[in-house]
Amino acid sequence: MPEKPGGTEITELAALKALAQPRRQQILQHLTLHGPATPAILARALGLNTGATSYHLRELARYGFVADTAPQEPGARRARWWRAVPGDPRFPPPSHRTPEMRLVMDELNRHAYAADLGPLV
Fold it and tell me: What is the pLDDT of residues 87-98, one digit of tens each?
């Protein structure tokens, strides 16, 4: 991801797709708000299973959105802890987006709007 003033631009279609998955957005948001966690902690907090949570964490790590970190609890050597990577990711301007990128950006926007609205019950 190239560095831009004010943030890092996400230019890879695969990275955008990784970020567009709703569960990955939930995981990233939880790590950002609550700090490092294990897949088991995230699974309990988000109502997911640990296997799926681990998979999503590895996908987020592949594109630099999360990274492993040292254990947060004494004696917790076996559990793998993850943290959100600090930064200010930016999306490419519309004029630089491919048709595939536009589709992924539309999906990201749909999820963002739905999250903003929350449950309408």
Answer: 888 888 989 999
